[in-house]
Amino acid sequence: MLLKKIGLSAILLIALQARGQQLVRATDVQMVSEAGTRVVISGGGITFKGTANRLNNGETHMYKTSVVSPEGWLDSTATGVLSASSTGNVFFRGNQRQSFFGKTRFYDLTIRNTAGDTLLSSCEVRNILNLDTGYIFTRSGYANDSLWVSNAAINAIASTSSFSKSWVNGRLSRSANVIGSLPTFYLFPVGKTDSLYAPVRMEKQNANLTVWTAEYFMGLPFDPYNVFSPPIDHISRKEYWEITGNAALAVDNNARPSLSWRGYSQVSSLAAVRDSLIVAQYIDRPPFMWDVPGGWVTGMTNGTDSLSGWVRSNTNNNFSFLERRFTLGTNSKYNGLPVKLIYFTAIADGNRVRLNWEVANEQDTRLYELEKSLNGRDFVHLSNISSRQLLQSSYVDYDPSPVQGWNYYRLKVIDKTNAYFYSPIRQVKFEKGNEELRMFPNPATTVLNILLPSSYTGKVTLQVYGMDGRLISSMRPTSSLVTMNVSAMASGSYVLQVLRDNGNKETYQFVKQ
């Protein structure tokens, strides 16, 4: 039975039970449910149209137990059906996916639907969002719809399951004006799918009102190889977050964020190595690159193992649209995140092209695929190399048939789930019989790698000279890869001289930073 009355002053006590797939509609009415009353809509949904208005001080329970539409809460009114003076709670319950749409300004909203609920337009929760069971799905990506909790209290989002069974799978917005420092923070319970809970913590640095929006993404972060090093050795290849603030003054958005890790993140199982984790942000230094505002300091991680924990920023971060990207970074090559490609090179070696690469933390890597192109755009398969799945490994393979002129190569790194990423493209201008030496990184800070043609092994002497002509070191390499420790050398330019046994000399220059 539905009780309704035309007019603006009617006060009605509603007890509503919709059976089967009946759709209950309220149009051009005012409805009132008092505290202690319950409106139950079971098996269907409710649509509000026209100037329908409801003062909800009790409870409304939306049960969805069938896959048949209609379902959910559809608010087609111009300004939202719930009165701004409502103090009641709307529950989404059942075991089939529901949806909610419109400009509804919920007072309390509780999610207890095991199949979850889909947000079809931006909605507001003015008091408490209760995430008990099931997930809220929103459209993904900046400027799409979000669920906004406008209550600026720290505890405005709660969960009877400690967020183990419910979070926002998409965009979540929160108003904030409470100054925080651990353990006081704004929690953003966001994640993806039904197993990747990836929350963010925000410690606000002033009492001026702002609204932050956060979303978690699985996959390769934007521009992942463009990092400021040091302090960053590499960033995650698995996940990232986008966090923005809407305050008119950028300083009002400022906060110290903490990012979470989970088993999917593939951080190190060793506490000492996990301590190298950092909150990396894509910022305009200039130019744009991944960096660590505030730098890295020890003691910013909190977690007893590699399955869950937090890494805290060392400073206040900015949350503008252009600098909205965040991810886990590390200053250690032993923090996987997951596999770290230390280098990938291609050099002419006699009548072949030799391809070398080194990786760290390849335990979850299944396969390496080498690909070749003649124009730098269209690549074809060249060869496969199985992963040794060790903490650190070096590999070599060859292109036995390079063409005259330019040859382009890239490495495809594939993990056990068949997710993959590509190395930077390497190019070689090949002329039959060419051999070349390569040094990297140049400039060098701690280590200079020297990659020799195969024919040089055991048949050359390497000598390093200062610019004043003073001999600094000499060695006779027994392998094609020479790793030279330059950390003790003064900053400046140096000369590497290669003395071949046939009397020929080659001279190269490198810089120590």
Structure description:
- The longest helix is centred in the middle third of the chain and has 4 residues, at 271-274.
- This protein is mainly β.
- It is elongated and about 100 Å long.
- Helices cover 1% and strands 48% of the residues.
- Residues 1-27 have low confidence and may be disordered.
- The strands form 9 sheets. Strands 3, 6, 8, 10, 12, 14, 15, 17, 22, 23, 24, 26, 27 and 30 form a 14-stranded mixed β-sheet that branches. A 7-stranded parallel β-sheet has the order 1-4-7-9-11-13-16, with no helix packed on it.
- Among the domains are: 210-243 and 259-338, no CATH class; 340-430, Coagulation Factor XIII, Chain A, domain 1, CATH 2.70.50.50; 438-512, Immunoglobulin-like.
- The chain starts with 22 loop residues before the first strand and ends with a strand.
- It is built from 1 helix and 45 strands.
Q: Could you name the key traits of this structure?
A:
513 residues; mainly beta; Coagulation Factor XIII, Chain A, domain 1; Immunoglobulin-like; 14-stranded mixed sheet; seven-stranded parallel sheet; 45 strands
Alpha-carbon distance between the two ends: 80 Å
Over the alpha carbons, how many angstroms does the gyration radius reach? 30 Å
The share of residues in helices is under 10%
- Averaged pLDDT: 86
Instruction: Write down how many β-strands occur, each being a DSSP E stretch of 2 or more residues.
Output: 45
Treating each run of at least 4 consecutive H or I residues as one helix, how many helices? 1
| Biggest sheet details | 14 strands, mixed
Beta percentage is: over 45%
Runs with pLDDT <50, length 5+? Answer: 1-27
Shape: elongated
Oligomer: single chain
Category from helices, strands and their pairing: mainly beta
